[in-house]
Design goal:
The structure is a single chain. This protein has four helices and four strands. It has one domain: Endonuclease, Chain A, CATH 3.40.960. The chain has a four-stranded mixed sheet, sandwiched between helices. It is α+β, with helices and mostly antiparallel strands and 143 residues long. Helix content is 43%, strand content 15%.
Length: 143
């Protein structure tokens, strides 16, 4: 019986590139924030909306309890874009699967705590996303 070996970790260069990857203030996030602000919406950035959750949400509307998660297609495994590097494919597949599982867990915890979760993908049009978010915030504030 042979033991299953874990996949090889990325090379030093890949590891360094991963460390340099922005986790906040990405271009899609900045574009969405500018559009939301232009529409007169005010929000909080990179907050932990529920106690005990060690994960931050990109854009938070505390009053109406709306959490906006802006996701990069590659890192969060967008099913529309489906990009996995050919080199070290097993490691990347597992890495992205863990990211997706963490995203799903975060969403479930937020919804269980009474938050509405809106996911915006990198490929989404920021004006369309802002319209959806604005509608949810204004509906929530009206009640």
């Amino acid at each position: 019986m042979s033991a299953v070996l874990p996949p090889k970790p990325p090379t030093g260069a890949v590891r360094q590139a991963m460390r340099a990857q922005r986790t906040r203030d990405t271009q899609p996030e900045l574009a969405l924030r500018r559009e939301l602000h232009r529409r007169g919406l005010r929000y909080r950035l990179h907050r932990r909306p529920i106690p005990g959750l060690r994960r931050t949400i990109d854009i938070v509307f505390p009053g109406p309890r709306i959490a906006v998660d802006v996701r990069g297609c590659f890192w969060h495994g967008c099913v529309r874009c489906k990009t996995i590097p050919k080199a070290n494919r097993l490691w990347w597949t597992q890495k992205i699967a863990k990211n997706r599982a963490r995203d799903q867990d975060t969403g479930q915890r937020l919804r269980a705590a009474g938050w509405r979760v809106i996911i915006v993908w990198e490929h989404d049009d920021c004006c369309d996303a802002a319209t959806l978010i604005e509608s949810a915030v204004r509906r929530s504030s009206a009640t």
